[in-house]
TrEMBL record:
Pfam families: TEX47
Gene: LOC112223610
Molecular function in Gene Ontology: blue light photoreceptor activity; FAD binding
Residue intervals of the BLUF domain: 43-147
Protein name, per record: BLUF domain-containing protein
UniProt cross-references to Gene3D superfamilies, sorted A to Z: 3.30.70.100
InterPro entries: BLUF_domain, TEX47-like
C-alpha cells in the first residue's frame, strides 16, 4: 500500500508533467509579466491599408464609421477591449487594431462588405499587411483616429510634387519598415500620453517624422502578394488538409481490395 508521502510525490510529479509543455511555460510567462491580467482571450493585432476613394468628401466619415463599429463590437464581445490607431492620409489609410481574434475577424468582414458594395465611398482596395497573434502587451492604450495633411516623403526629404522616380523596395522590406515605424510611434505615444492630458492628435502633430510616409503605403497598395480581406477570410475559414505519412503508401488503398 502506498503511503501518504508516496501519493504526494506522485501528485507533484503529475503537476510537473502537465505543466512542462510549451503552452504552459508561455502562459506562466504572461502571468509573470502581468499578474492582474484576466486570461479570457489572447491578444492579436491587425494592420490593414486601403486607398481612399476620390468621392470621399470628408475623411472624418471613415473615422466615425469605425467609432460606431467599435462600439457595436464591444457591446457584442463584452470584455474584449479594442485599442489601436487609424491614420487617415490624403489618399489612403493605415489602421492598427488590437483585440481578440473574433473582433478582428469582424473588422475584416466589415472591410469585405464595404468593398463589395457597388458604390462604396469610404474605402477602396484594402490590403492586409500583418496579423500578429498572442501578443504579450498592447501597443496602444485606446482606439483613436487622426486626419493627416502630410506631404509625400522622398529620400528622407519632403516634397510637394509627390514622389520622384526611384527604385522600389520589395514587399517584405516595405512591410518591415512600416512595422518598425509603427512600433516606434506606439512607444512614443505611450510615453508622451502617460500622465498627460495632451490630446493624441497634438502629440502626433509634434512628431511628423515618426509617421509612416504616404508613398510607402501607396507602394504597398499596389502589391498583389498582399491579401485582400476577402482572400484572408477565405483562407481563415478554410480547414487545413494535412497529408499524413500513412497516406503516402503504395499501392493506394483502393488497389488492396480483394474481389471475390
Amino acid at each position: 500500500m502506498e503511503t501518504s508521502s508516496q501519493l504526494l510525490s506522485l501528485d507533484q510529479k503529475k503537476e510537473e508533467d502537465v505543466g512542462t509543455s510549451l503552452f504552459h511555460c508561455h502562459m506562466k510567462q504572461r502571468r509573470l509579466f502581468n499578474p492582474q491580467e484576466e486570461m479570457k482571450f489572447l491578444l492579436h493585432r491587425l494592420i490593414v491599408v486601403s486607398s481612399l476613394p476620390q468621392q470621399l468628401a470628408d475623411r472624418k466619415d471613415l473615422g466615425v464609421h469605425y467609432e460606431e463599429l467599435n462600439q457595436r463590437l464591444q457591446r457584442y464581445y463584452q470584455g474584449d477591449a479594442i485599442t489601436g490607431l487609424l491614420l487617415l492620409y490624403p489618399t489612403c489609410m493605415l489602421h492598427v487594431i488590437e483585440s481578440s481574434s473574433e473582433v478582428l475577424v469582424s473588422l475584416l468582414q466589415d472591410l469585405r462588405d464595404m468593398q463589395e458594395r457597388p458604390h462604396c465611398v469610404l474605402i477602396e482596395a484594402p490590403r492586409v499587411l500583418v496579423m500578429s497573434h498572442d501578443l504579450p502587451s498592447r501597443l496602444f492604450q485606446q482606439w483613436s483616429y487622426k486626419v493627416l495633411n502630410v506631404l509625400a516623403r522622398v529620400g528622407g526629404m519632403l516634397s510637394r510634387d509627390g514622389p520622384e522616380e526611384e527604385e522600389e523596395e520589395d514587399t517584405d522590406t516595405l512591410v518591415s519598415t512600416t512595422l518598425s515605424m509603427l512600433l516606434k510611434l506606439g512607444n512614443h505615444l505611450l510615453k508622451a500620453t502617460k500622465g498627460s492630458k495632451m490630446p493624441l492628435g497634438s502629440v502626433l502633430d509634434e512628431v511628423p517624422e515618426m509617421l509612416v510616409p504616404q508613398d510607402i503605403l501607396v507602394q504597398l497598395l499596389s502589391r498583389e502578394d498582399l491579401l485582400s480581406p476577402q482572400q484572408y477570410l477565405q483562407a481563415y475559414h478554410t480547414p487545413l488538409h494535412i497529408l499524413i505519412d500513412s497516406e503516402r503508401t503504395w499501392p493506394p488503398p483502393e488497389q488492396l481490395r480483394c474481389e471475390f
